[in-house]
Fold these 4 entries.
Entry 1:
Amino acid sequence: MKPLFTLKPGQTWTGAPPRSEVRVIDSIEKNHVVFRRKGKRRAFLTLQETTIMGFRKWIQQSQAISDDGLSATDLHGFSPSREIGQRIQLLRKAAGLSQKAFAEMLGMSRAAVCFWETGRSSHISEHVPRIAEIFGISEEVFLNGQNNETIPIELTKDEENIIKLYRSLSIENRLQAIKRMEMLYIKG
């Protein structure tokens, strides 16, 4: 089983060649990562700081691998935006639509559809109803990838309250709630 994607102090990340930059995390404070970058001539340079998202972006761009076996591909497993992008691509292809044809149906540019399909779901929430309509599915199926079925399950009062609150949110706020929960999960 693959380890969960977690940034933690002491972790060493090495980027892919040709740069092969090495970063060692010193600490994680609130939304920031404090790290040292290994130089070619010196052991380690002074402390540097970036946001957690900035560090994750560097991991993706440099295709870095950690000393505990994590890689840039592990980042995608925790991204609701990426999952929605993959769902759009899957539905679009199943419907036999090109990115351009799908974009035209939405009254958008092909670049916007490409942007979504790569997990950068900026402003997608306002288009969810139309996307669901084009594919002939409910908004719930589009967002969650599954139908609502009545399955007997026992929930705690806290879980029931969370579900009620989530269902009362707008689509845009649901996406934000999912992202925030993802960040809390990553922080552990």
Entry 2:
Amino acid sequence: MPELPEVEAIAHHLREHAVGRIITRVDVASLTVLKTVSPSWTDLHGREVTGASRHGKHLDLECGESHLIVHLARAGWLRWSDSLPAAPPRQGKGPLALRVHLGGGGFDLTEAGTKKGLAVWIVHDPAEVPSIARLGTDALELDAAALRELLAGRTARLKTVLTDQSVIAGIGNAYSDEILHAARLSPYATAAKLPEESVERLAEAIHEVLSGAVERSVGQAVARLKGEKRSGLRVHGRAGLPCPVCGDTVREVSFADKALQYCPTCQTGGKPLADRRLSRLLK
């Protein structure tokens, strides 16, 4: 799933390549991707792209008084091209969901797989998008004091709180694993019970991990962002490999639709976390 650094890099790419250009046509290849009816996508025709920004993990293409808001979800992506086909795409065929023509070039919004989550809104104000209206503090705006306030009274696991967009906006499954590893904290730690020193380490890790990923990603071609993300990960997606810090084996805990990775030596005092899926297999 694209998270804060990748969405920020895509917004930067659009600021460099799309701003100042006119939307000549919008092709909708999958009507289910549109979450708003009015304004219509045809209202964007002839509008100039005036900006591109980010709200948490939402991409915001500013078109004068209108905003094309995109949430790429788990398997969505933006593919930029300097030359797009002139013929409209066939609806319901392949991964293409929506195409935006900007002169001769533009971009496609695509989604792989059968579980669809890619969402597009056309609004006059980003706050009209419910998931934006619910966003918590942007992860890059947090300091230790603000983080301490957010964690106070929360009895959920730290991993859960970090990925709750209504609490902290922009962090997903991958970067939460990286942040917890950098902060040397268990994903199962209770958020409200963190000692002061741990809160400070966590705030520092959030800033360092995300800022570092943004620096590596911004300026890259959009097509290379996924590879850039993978190359910078130290524990996420590396189960079974040695931890780059201590050499212990990176472990995994699996859930119904995702998994987390961690280092026992760095994060849990050497104790593996219970993996219910593995426990069921051993019965």
Entry 3:
Amino acid sequence: MSSIQLIDRYSRQVAVIGKEGQEKLSRARVAVIGLGGLGSLVSMYLAGAGVGELTIVDYDTISVTDLHRQLLYREEDVGKPKVEVAISRLHALNPTVKIKPVNDALVEENAEVVLDGVDVVVDALDNWLGRQVLNEAIVKLRKPLVHGAVNGWYGQVSTIIPGRTPCLFELVHARSLPQCVGYCPVIGPVVGVVASIEATEVIKLITGIGEPLINKLLIIDGKNWVIDEIKLSRVDNCPVCSRYLKEK
């Protein structure tokens, strides 16, 4: 794609973030952990925005129950690995974006390798056990994390900067959505709202434009359209932060 075509492609976005902001996006490397409702939509927005490299991580296959909210996939994809389908669809959306697929779960044994070299990490997981692994990795590696979660009509988003904000462990134990057992019932458009906010947070972190949700937890009530912002603060006895963020 020529430079003129690239300018045309992102012209509406460059009008907001400037040429320098677009260049920062083109050099950025983002890891999206989970390709379900949140991750499939976040990855589409980031590919569309022109992020230079996307690492996409998921071990699951597509089921028919995914289709009402995971709009990256189609009925013909049922039974296929999410990562494999995502590669094709994201490249079709924007062939200039480099895709690094990881067809595996994020676990202690691979977390540091998967996240090494990325600039921002997106939490698009659907369970808190997986988030514990992710949280330890981002705190240890000091990687910014954009956290999102959805349950029913409700969603939440926060941006975590290790050493500056509460980590995910502190956030979950302070105030959070109820944890899902087995599966999470969700309304598709509410997932879309949360995914859009997560993608926006990533763009803000990369470009340095705007104020990210640092030390804040945004709570979205899609049933009554009430949005609350809760202020967060670090605690001294967090077992994760105290382990990995010791003063040198």
Entry 4:
Amino acid sequence: MADIPPNLDWVRAAPEDAEGPGPWIEIAFGEGDDGEAPVYIRETNDPDNVVTTNRRKWDAFVLGVQAGEFDHFVEGLEDAENSAP
């Protein structure tokens, strides 16, 4: 397992009005600004279990989410979209 820097600034991916402990996903960006700079991902209920990727892969994932490429993984999303006015 890669060494996780102790001074990371974890950002919680939760709605602003979210209450309670989650679990939520947290993201932290490591040093560097190129495509190989590390990105760390963890759940709030298991903060010692950290997944590491790089900025290039993270950016591709975010673009895919924004484009709806993963919508088929969300149960009930299609029904909600079909019932929208």
